[in-house]
Design goal:
The protein has helices spanning about 5-15, 20-59. By secondary structure, the protein is mainly α. The longest helix has about 40 residues, at about 20-59. The chain is rod-shaped. The mean pLDDT is about 95.
């Protein structure tokens, strides 16, 4: 299940009154923080891999 699928499902839950506004906001804040963390981790990994390749190419 993709992030978009989970987001769509959670929005439906909120619209149908299955979860409160506070629960929806907490989920959204948590999920956005998690997505940002994943992207930062991926970017950092790519940068480190590029630096390792540069160092290896010097030898």
């Amino acid at each position: 299940m993709s992030y978009a699928d989970v987001l769509s499902y959670t929005v439906k839950q909120y619209r149908n009154g299955e979860i409160s506004r506070e629960e929806f906001r907490a989920w959204l804040k948590h999920s956005l923080t998690l997505q940002m963390s994943i992207r930062i981790e991926q970017t950092t990994k790519r940068m480190l891999q590029n630096k390792i390749q540069m160092v290896r190419s010097l030898h």
